[in-house]
Specification:
By secondary structure, this protein is of the alpha+beta class. The protein folds into two domains: 2-33 and 120-199, Roll (Outer membrane lipoprotein wza fold like); 48-117, wza like fold, CATH 3.30.1950. Helix content is 19%, strand content 24%. It contains five helices and ten strands. Strands 7-6-10-8-9 form a five-stranded mixed beta sheet. A three-stranded antiparallel beta sheet has the order 2-1-5. A two-stranded antiparallel ribbon has the order 3-4. A hairpin with a 6-residue loop joins strand 8 and strand 9 (171-173). The protein is elongated, with a radius of gyration of 20 Å. Residues 1-38 have low confidence and may be disordered.
């Protein structure tokens, strides 16, 4: 109860001042790409994907297909399809649409394609109760990531949560305002991101 009350009292933040030399996310609509959001949530070479087929006639059985995206960015071996399917650089939703177009109407009048990336992670460290790597589920924000790591410890500096994205400079997020105004300050988290919660000075 103590930890929960401390969290609710504290985790909500503006994207506070970033350390010298780092970029700062503006408190606007989230369209700014200062931390490189565009293209981050795309499949890459080496990602493992699972493709599931539902909604087909009972006479047709299409088993789920799992595969690692090849070096050329494609996947192969899907039922009925002889050609490879480009996958790298697409979101799971885009890949679902592309695969659907290959089956309908050529093979089926309707089919539902579900693509899941099975091996993408982000990490949360520092002053959280359960630090470590966490599987990316496609809908993660800085607040959800902290929750997934069992929330802040009592020593956490909630105003200085560092988010580092591959190839980008780290930014500092004030998590207190992210909870108070999620639309404005609760930034998305993507695969490969590293979140570090600093220790507050007692």
């Amino acid at each position: 109860m103590l930890l929960a009350s401390l969290f609710l009292a504290g985790c909500g933040g503006t994207l506070g001042a970033a350390p010298a030399g780092t970029s700062k996310v503006p408190a606007a609509t989230g369209t700014n790409d200062s931390i490189g959001r565009e293209g981050i949530d795309k499949l890459r070479v080496g990602n493992k994907v699972r493709i599931e087929f539902t909604g087909v006639p009972s006479t047709d059985v299409l088993y789920p297909h799992e595969e690692q995206i090849k070096d050329d960015g494609t996947i192969t071996g899907l039922p009925y399809l002889t050609n490879s399917v480009p996958a790298a650089g697409k979101s799971t939703r885009e890949l679902e649409q592309d695969i659907h177009a290959l089956y309908v109407p050529r093979y089926f009048t309707r089919i539902t394609i579900t693509v899941t990336a099975t091996d993408r992670f982000y990490s949360v460290g520092g002053e959280v109760n359960r630090p470590g790597s966490i599987r990316y589920d496609g809908d993660v924000t800085i607040i959800k990531a902290i929750h997934a790591a069992s929330d802040f410890t009592i020593f956490a500096n909630k105003k200085k949560v560092q988010l580092t994205r591959p190839g980008k400079k780290p930014i500092t997020i004030n998590c207190e305002k992210a909870l108070e105004d999620p639309e404005k300050y609760d930034v998305p988290v993507y695969p490969g991101d590293i979140i570090f919660v600093k220790r507050r000075i007692l």
